[in-house]
Amino acid sequence: MPEFLKKKILVIQTAFIGDAILATSVLEKLHKKFPFAQIDFLVRKGNEPLFAEHPFVHKLYVWNKKENKYRSLLKILSQIRKEEYLYVINLQRYLSTGILTVFSEATAKIGFDKNPLSRFFTKKFKHDMKSGIHEIERNHQLIKAISDENPAMPRLYPSKKQFEKVKKYKTTNYITISPASVWFTKQLPAKTWIGLIKELEKDYKIFLLGGPGDKELCEKIRLQAESPKTFNLAGKLSLLESAALMQDAVMNYTNDSAPMHLASSMNAPVTAVYCSTIPEFGFGPLSDDSYIVETAKDLTCRPCGLHGRRSCPQKHFDCAMSISTYGLLFGIKDRLKNAGRNKKNA
Fold first, then answer.
1. Contact status, residue 105 vs residue 118, Cβ threshold 8 Å
2. pLDDT tens for each residue of 154-180
3. Per CATH, the architecture of 160-345 is what?
């Protein structure tokens, strides 16, 4: 194989789960353009299970930000320098990843202008949160010159074993609900999820998804819904197992949070609820069957920030309280109507 085909490329994304999932769009595009390249990926500790068996990731760096943060950073930098990368592509905008990029000894150091060390990058690109473009399009700017004009969709790859684990739940039509969020103002109130369960339980099994920390909320919803067809799987499935379950659901309900991106990565149908945040920030769902639910009220306080908040600054939380069960049902009814039309035309 010619040496020029054996490129070494490092992609850096050390933010939270959703950001790491969206970064797989870059991995997909680079692999398609350079199928023989060594593509490595740097993520924060906690996100590595998503990529442990990723078919396009050759080497996975894991940065522990909570223990010996800077010692860990320097250790990773030492490993990076030994690889002699052709490209280091930094999707982050913060000083620490700027240090890794600038001192990587890569031939080309590519990142966003908002990084404090961007003046030392080989190429830098504007990072604009106000233009309404999606995050995968923002990230794609960094590799457009070495690939093409069109971003790839994000994608995750659950293993055969992970698909097997969730197979037992797929015996009938089902939906999933991921009701939790790290941020209070991104989280639809439990009573609205309960209302949705009461509307859907006659036709579907319902699986509540989340991490170990979401188990209590999911159990509260299950008990108050008093639904024998609703099951709490929070803390029982890994992220990739949850993604494997989402793939064949009739609908997946999420907040503006990581489970929405899990659904997108499997091209699974998703209804995403936006409370204090807005889709125009560029983190919306990407599945072919995607539906967005948000308040119909014209609230001058919304959005109240780029990310969620621990509490509503105005104390009324109207951006969430005004969302109805009816609004949540639109997507699933529309999808079933289209399925019926397609069957009739077949």
1. no
2. 999 999 999 999 999 999 999 999 999
3. 3-Layer(aba) Sandwich (3.40)
Find out whether 136 and 25 touch, Cβ atoms under 8 Å: yes
User: What is the 3-state secondary structure of 287-309?
Assistant: CCCEEEEECCCCCCCCCCCCCCC
Beta strand extents in the chain (DSSP E only): 8-12, 38-44, 60-63, 87-90, 108-112, 123-125, 174-178, 205-208, 230-232, 251-255, 270-274, 290-294
Is the peptide bond between 303 and the residue preceding it cis, with omega within 30 degrees of 0?
yes
pTM of the predicted structure, to 2 decimals: 0.93
Hunting for tokens 């599945």 — which residue is that? 287
Report CA-CA distances (Å) from 34 to 56, 63, 82.
11, 26, 21
Residue position matching structure tokens 């913060």: 94
Tokens of 75: 């250790």
Residue type, 197: I
Q: Which of 185, 182, 190, 184 is nearest to 222 (CA)?
A: 190
Q: What is the pLDDT of residues 9-67, one digit of tens each?
A: 999 999 999 999 999 999 999 999 999 999 999 999 999 999 988 999 999 999 999 89
- Confidence band for 203, pLDDT divided at 50, 70 and 90: very high
If one looks up domain 3-146 in CATH, what number appears?
Answer: 3.40.50.2000
- Indicate if 160-345 has the same CATH topology as 3-146: yes
Angle subtended by helix axes 69-83 and 95-102, to nearest 10:
30
